[in-house]
Amino acid sequence: MEEISVVLAGANGHGRWHLENLRRLVPRGAVRLVGVCDVEPPGDEVTAGLGAPDFDRDLGALIDRTAARVAIVCTPIHTHTPLALAAARHGAHVLLEKPPAPSWARFEELADGMDAAGRACQVGFQSFGSHAVAAVRTLVEDGAIGEVRGIGAAGNWVREEHYFTRSAWSGRRRLGGADVVDGVLTNPLAHAVATALRIDRSDRSQDVVAIETQLLRAHDIEADDTSCVRIRTARGTVITVAATLCARQAAEPYVVVHGTRGRITFWYKQDRVLVQRAGHGPDEQLFGRTDLLENLLDHVADRAELIAPLSATGAFTKVVEAVRTAPEPSAVPDRWWQSVPGRHSPRRVIDGVDSAVEAAAGSLQLFTELDVPWAVAAAGRVRSR
């Protein structure tokens, strides 16, 4: 097996996950970490077990010096486009963290630049690598649950207040004139949106016909921490995604396909699928997963097609653009949320949000259509595109 040289841009935060993944792959002889790009050199403990990678604050210079063939870009959202393009111009293929870009204009700039450089860009939607996606599609297309009535997705997550102060761009819609769009649907629970579109075979930009957004926030931030979006696809499917970072209790996010004779629920972080349909008992299965870095390495070696190419995130980026251009998120009135102790800092919990998120995914309705009191009180705005 050919050993492919890799550099990592962004060694902290989620970058630590990529370092662990590299520790898994390096002993197999498939990859070698030759460089790290960050604002400060990482400590030896950060890259322990990965040799002695070079360091530079300039990604292009690092790629030139190390002759890296692949760059992992795991940096703030508003730096994704310039860093991915810098990597490509200096000859590296790219594994780019989601969301790929904070606006449609930046996404088009990224796509055009990657094409011009002749380099591949794999986007870090790890759920796309789940073998469950193909299984769910097959069940749907074989009519296992009848005609599809729509697709819902739900994400009840918990984040403490320090999550929104961990960096200058956290919880921001823009920073220093640059779009960031660090909202619940576009970053922490972006997989819920992208996976629902993927299951519907509606992941390209032209597959989206209309988008309605309802953006709210309980925290003192610019971006949304509790929101829902309803997407209408060219296939005629209605997709409603609801998510919050202010849940009473954290739960595994899921995508659910509603049919006329049953439903299929996919817990995409667990690769777990539950089929419930008329005339049959519940059927639950676990599936395997293909790692996106391994897939990119195979692609570079001409052994595989990309699982999550940039083009397959066009529909998701249309949702990012709808969130970016929507009215500013409405504040949930103080009487509808409480501050409770967290492990490291307090966290805010919106009354009844857990059930509201589940209800939106189950009914394909937005919060205000469900008469959720805090959404109505906040005058939750809906915008169509």
TrEMBL record:
Entry keyword annotation includes ATP-binding: no
Pfam families the UniProt entry points to: GFO_IDH_MocA, GFO_IDH_MocA_C3
InterPro entries referenced in this protein's UniProt entry, alphabetically: Gfo/Idh/MocA-like_OxRdtase_N, Gfo/Idh/MocA_oxidrdct_glycsds, GFO_IDH_MocA-like_dom, NAD(P)-bd_dom_sf
GFO/IDH/MocA-like oxidoreductase domain span: 134-264
Residue ranges of every copy of the Gfo/Idh/MocA-like oxidoreductase N-terminal domain listed in the record: 5-125
Entry keywords, A to Z: Oxidoreductase
Classification via Gene3D superfamilies: Dihydrodipicolinate Reductase, domain 2, NAD(P)-binding Rossmann-like Domain
UniProt KW Transmembrane keyword: no
Protein name: Gfo/Idh/MocA family oxidoreductase
